[in-house]
Amino acid sequence: MATLTFLGAAGTVTGSKHLLDTGTHRVLVDCGLFQGLKTLRERNWQPFAVPPHTIDAVVLTHAHLDHCGYLPRLVADGFHGRVFCTAATRELCTIVLPDSAHIQEEDAREANRRGYTKHHPALPLYTSADADRALTHLQPVGYYRPVPVVPGIEVEFLNAGHLLGSAYARVRFDGKTVLFGGDLGRSGRPVLPDPVPIAEADVLLVESTYGDRLHGPDDDGSEIATIIADAAARGGRLIIPAFAIGRVEEVIYWIKRLEGENRIPVLPVYVDSPMAARALQFYSQRLDELDEEMTPSERGVCAFCTMRMTTIASPQASMELVASGRPAIVIASSGMATGGRVLHHLEATLPSARTTVLFVGYQAAGTRGRALVDGAKTVRMKGRDVPVAAHIEHIDSMSAHADVDEIMRWLSGFSRPPDMTYLVHGEPVALDALRARIERESKWPVHIASHQERVPL
């Protein structure tokens, strides 16, 4: 009998991994890193649930680390099959995975140099060589084109509207259809196309990140405009931790639009992330895949440029920017302040009341971003406690994840209920709230997946 095992993003948001086992073949859908709480991050170091060499193929829904970031470790530990994804996901993985490896190598070196590790020596989860090797396994596939991944199992990618290249994975085998929802995007947002409706599936996996809440209305950018104006009035820096792939592009879209409408002061904007700079270039080269509602001027010569924008390439230039202290908008990753260059900016500016820190995405439990949004007075960075006097802001409306009403609206497009709907990719409160709402309004059979749970298909 075919089974499905939830190896990640079950009872939590990160680490998406779902293992389909038909008895003849094994296909892993998503291969993400656990992030946030230490107890979750430690799972990245545990032996994989099955020997990696016994997995026949991997399917990726998109190129965010919590969905693709474990792939180099899987390959290093013996996986040798093909990895199926959309063409845009493949290209973004060539940016994301080497960058992830570099950050892990740098963090390990820094921990060893400064002595704030309990491991001697601290090691990266995987190396740059592992990431490069993983990229050779990627097999790009077009949207809406079913392809066999192994004999008897085919996958079709459908646009999820969450990130350039993001998809639901519709997997068919033995007359069954299992829809792996990945991350569900939002309708009516700038930059990305709307998620496509789905009519039916026998089994559905759907994310629950915002299963207990609604995004605030900010269709005209008023919220971010107010925050930028207030930050400028304080004369300090506006630090925006942002996911380099997807979120940086939307932040710059709004700054450019608000500048053009004379609704914010024109400030220097620094994109201090080599990965984000490459992603911006990639997005600019694929304007035909972005939201058809973007105006011709928004798709113009520089679709993702502000009036005074500079991208920072070298580590030395980044540290010089940190030291300069000039009023500016600094956009840097990571979006949850778990790593990357944004940590240098936060370490230097959090103690100042003139600083504004704006979070523009989901902040997982156990991350510095979550601690700051929740009002922490100090945060731990590089072995020391950094005091927080900065103004901390959080905009939910810029999230690329569907809120609970948007999830329910998408589910309402099904012509018949799935035999079972599994809720994944959410924290316990959000999972339970979405379960209750689906049962109450749709009267579908629904189950909250738990970590390492195996269910029959």
| Order of adjacent strands in the largest pleated sheet | 6-5-4-3-2-1-22
CATH class of the largest domain: Alpha Beta
Major beta sheet summary: 7 strands, mixed
Number of strands: 22
What's the helix count? 13
**What is the average per-residue confidence, as pLDDT, rounded to a whole number?**
94
User: Can you give the helix content as a percent range?
Assistant: 25-40%
* Rounded radius of gyration (Å): 21 Å
What low-confidence regions span 5 or more consecutive residues with pLDDT below 50? none
CATH architecture of the largest domain: 4-Layer Sandwich
Task: Name the shape in a single word.
Answer: globular
- N-to-C span: 7 Å
CATH fold title of the largest domain: Metallo-beta-lactamase, Chain A
Residue share in β-strands: 15-25%
Number of domains: 2
Please state the structural category: alpha/beta
- The CATH superfamily name of the largest domain is Ribonuclease Z/Hydroxyacylglutathione hydrolase-like
